[in-house]
Specification:
With 122 residues, the protein is mostly beta strands. The chain is 0% helix and 52% strand.
């Protein structure tokens, strides 16, 4: 089992920045690809970003490319999401996710955190 705990959400004005953190415990953190997903009210959960086991490769949803940056620190069992130039449409609950392979579909995630709410006001 892997336990994931997100932090760093909150209320921010459009154009602002937030940094989300996810702390992992349990099995060896470095064995997992880590990702962020989000779910806006009334919408399905969607892929945001993913980072491979040692952080060598990252992928982003087109909607956040150039504004968000995913990173990880395997010595701290943590993954981060730096979000810049935030827009009201970025408002959602953001979930940390772990998988044994690179995936962009929520159906293929092995472990989920409980989420942290990000609200972007216009």
């Amino acid at each position: 089992q892997v336990q994931l705990v997100e932090s760093g959400g909150g209320l921010v004005q459009a154009g602002g920045s937030l940094r989300l953190s996810c702390a992992a415990s349990g099995r060896t953190f470095g064995n997992y690809v880590m990702g962020w997903f989000r779910q806006a009210p009334g919408k399905e959960r969607e892929f945001v970003a993913v980072i491979t086991w040692t952080g060598g490769t990252t992928f982003y949803a087109d909607s956040v490319k150039g504004r968000f940056t995913i990173s990880r620190d395997n010595t701290k069992n943590s993954v981060y999401l730096q979000m810049n130039s935030l827009k009201p449409e970025d408002t959602a609950v953001y979930y940390c996710a772990a998988a044994t392979r690179v995936v962009v579909s929520p159906e293929n995630i092995d472990y989920w955190g409980k989420g942290t709410l990000v609200t972007v006001s216009s």
